[in-house]
Amino acid sequence: MSVPLLDVNAQNLPLEAELKQVFENVLRSGRFILGEEVEAFEKECAAALGAKHAISISSGTDALIVALMALDIGPGDEVLCPSFTFFATAGSVFRTGATPVFCDVEPEFFGIDLASAKSKLTPKTKAIIPVHLYGQAVDMDAMTSFAKEHGLKVVEDVAQSFGATYRGRACGTIGDIGSYSFFPSKNLGGFGDGGLVTTECSELHEKMLRLRNHGMHPRYHHSMVGGNFRMDALQCALLQVKLRHIGEYSAGRTRNANYYTHRLSPIAGDSFILPAAHEHARHVWNQYTIRVPGRRDELKTHLTAKGIGCEIYYPVPMHRQECFEKLPEHSLSNCPVSDLLAAEVISIPVYAELVDAQLDEVAAALESFLS
Fold first, then answer.
1. Mind giving me the DSSP string for 9-35?
2. What pLDDT digit, counting tens, does each position of 147-180 carry?
């Protein structure tokens, strides 16, 4: 039996009638940019996350850019971010004119290593971006303490972790700004690109509202230069339908992750390392990522031959990317754990709609590789 890494239709098609009705409503309204659907979705997102303010944005990448712009990050500034992450984290910093400074990560939970971050502080450091990777929260107590000590702004990259929590608070509501993605593969996956920013600060909220729409307020008056970072009304309306199911989606991913952990624990060890989860945080399992020292590529070949979807997130850390090779030396140095993880990690199917037979197939393929 083939098992895809992700099957978006398994989640979307059961909602087909409702999604089509929403599409028809937006079509007939003739209002496709901003408007009631956008405002309603933002309000429901804020309620779901326990955030004071939520603003829909054109993509997860743009959400990071808007957040950095709102914090006045730009040329001459440095921003600490993990090397082991998706490219958008670092690329967004670079696009503001600031310099991304790559820090190493923790080998067990994949969050930014604050000892590495501390070693890379300079007078130019203005902000830090903790990435809640694969669906799990960074240690935000340590993060906020570190940021406060060094006068840094905190932009939480929550692209993979909508609904994840840290000590009862939603990821993205603890730092200065949270940035989310609704790319179709995410836990709350849309029908194209889309994103969100959250903040508890009313001043930042007003600023990001203006930045989203070319810095305009009132109409045709621009006190700042923003961009076209609006999310389509149709995307908001469609996502609003799915948002009401986010609890069951997260529960399904957690159930599947627990199945893998229970079944595979007897064969796990130094050569096959299962993902860990913080006791004080709720992991939402955007990915179930294992580490296979020395044999990861063999395992990928093995799984692919058996029809099991798998992917390497991420094979090249940021400090090894060609486009960043001319950054200052301190931006690129001393990230050995990021290099190690890039050579060891592989993710297997964990999406909520997997059935028992598919879970058995994936687990059996892993067991046969190690037998």
1. HHHHGGGHHHHHHHHHHHHHHT--BSS
2. 999 999 999 999 999 999 999 999 999 999 999 9
SS3 category, 260: helix
Burial of residue 187, with CB atoms counted within 10 A of its CB: 0-12 exposed, 13-18 middle, 19 or more buried: buried
pLDDT digits (tens, 9 = 90+) for 110-132: 999 999 999 999 999 999 999 99
Burial class (CB in 10 A: 0-12, 13-18, 19+), 138: buried
CB neighbour class for 290 (10 Å; exposed up to 12, middle 13-18, buried from 19): buried
Percent of the chain whose predicted confidence (pLDDT) is above 70: 100
Query: The tokens 């850390």 sit on which residue?
Result: 317
Each residue's pLDDT tens digit, 275-333 = 999 889 999 999 999 999 999 999 999 999 999 999 999 999 999 999 999 999 999 99
E strand segments, the chain: 53-57, 78-82, 99-103, 125-128, 153-157, 165-166, 169-170, 177-181, 195-199, 281-282, 288-291, 345-348
Question: From the CB of residue 280, how many other CB atoms can be counted at a distance below 10 Å?
Answer: 12
For the CA atoms of 13, 18, 24, 25, the dihedral, rounded to the nearest 10 degrees, stands at -150
- Tell me how far CA of residue 35 lies from CA of 30, 38, 44, 63, 167, in angstroms: 10, 6, 15, 19, 35
Contact 178, 171 (CB under 8 A): yes
Report all structural domains of the chain as residue ranges with CATH numbers, in order of start: 8-103+111-243 (3.40.640.10), 247-370 (3.90.1150.10)
Closest CA to 153 of 90, 70, 76: 70
Q: Is the peptide bond before 315 cis (omega within 30 degrees of 0)?
A: no
pLDDT of res. 122: 98
pLDDT above 90: residue 1: no
Phi and psi at residue 315, to the nearest 5° = -80, -20
Question: Which amino acid is located at 51 in the chain?
Answer: A
The pTM (predicted TM-score) of the whole model is 0.97
* CA pair distance 288, 136, nearest whole angstrom: 11
C-alpha distances in Å from residue 162, one per residue of 29, 104, 119, 183, 277: 29, 24, 30, 12, 16
